[in-house]
Design goal:
Mean pLDDT: 90
Order of helices and strands: EHEEHEHEE
Structural class: alpha+beta
Helix content: 25-40%
Low-confidence stretches: none
Strand order of the largest sheet: 1-2-3-4-6-5
Distance between the termini: 20 Å
Number of domains: 1
Largest sheet: 6 strands, mixed
Number of helices: 3
Length: 107
């Protein structure tokens, strides 16, 4: 783990808690600025069931906590309308143009 307070790297399947063989293409970044961990997901292409979204968010919370972040921000464009409705309702996702943003305060 990088212990510095400001860095950025490429998003990896392990960050999401999913197996590499489930992913055809993954593009995005993970960055830490102070105590805010931001995941920018530009593309996920593979065999990930929508029901796994909640497990992925739990995995991302754990990732953020491992870096001692107090806030987790997940950014990207959600193409699946049903999934968008669910994350908007459950996580209060905000639309910003063509992108959605979920901001979670961590314990």
């Amino acid at each position: 783990m990088d212990s510095s307070n400001n860095w950025q790297r490429q998003l990896q399947p392990a960050d999401l808690g999913i197996e590499e063989n489930q992913i055809i293409e993954l593009a995005g970044t993970v960055s830490l600025r102070g105590q805010i961990l931001t995941l920018r997901i530009d593309m996920i292409l593979g065999s990930i069931k929508p029901a796994r979204a909640f497990q992925i968010i739990r995995n991302l919370r754990k990732l953020a906590q491992s870096y001692h972040a107090s806030v987790l921000v997940i950014e990207g464009s959600i193409a699946d309308e049903r999934l968008l409705k669910v994350v908007t309702r459950r996580y209060n996702a905000k639309s910003e143009g063509a992108n959605e943003r979920i901001t979670l305060e961590l314990d």
